[in-house]
């Protein structure tokens, strides 16, 4: 009888599994920071566009300057228009000159606006505020997604936090559908008005 030799099997190398804790914590921190940054812009602009924040009054557009992309540092993109003028508060305060407004208008136009403390005025436009509010909801969604991972790390994935993950899932779904719904309302109103 001939002796058969079996092919020699090489042992499968054992690869040490990396702990997902630091990656989950880092991802959570990134999501929270992006959510807070975007949320701060969305909350501020939404508040000014709705008229809830800032000083309300009338903005008189005095001059508009068209700037080509080459004046802004080159690159591709549409030319921009920067308009400035005088803001007269509705509460009877002194007029403020040389302020900028967030959109472009023809000189001589008067716009109901809200101005912040650094000198930027926003046209009071509830449709625009609706769009920024949907952005605020999306930013809250990012904070809700990243917060537990940033605080708990890999422990958030254990059985101990199963109920917390279920609550987080419901919050994320609710915020997602609310943000999407408000954004659809914004699109409908923007195209209808």
UniProtKB/TrEMBL annotation:
Keywords for the protein's UniProt record, in alphabetical order: Membrane, Transmembrane, Transmembrane helix
Asked if the Swiss-Prot or TrEMBL record annotates the protein with the keyword Transmembrane helix, the reply is: yes
Keyword Transmembrane among record annotations: yes
- Residue numbers spanned by region Disordered: 70-99
Q: Which domain of life is it from?
A: Bacteria
Q: Where do transmembrane segments lie in this chain?
A: 26-45, 132-151, 171-189
Q: What is this protein called?
A: Uncharacterized protein
Q: What is the lineage of its organism?
A: Bacteria, Bacillati, Actinomycetota, Actinomycetes, Kitasatosporales
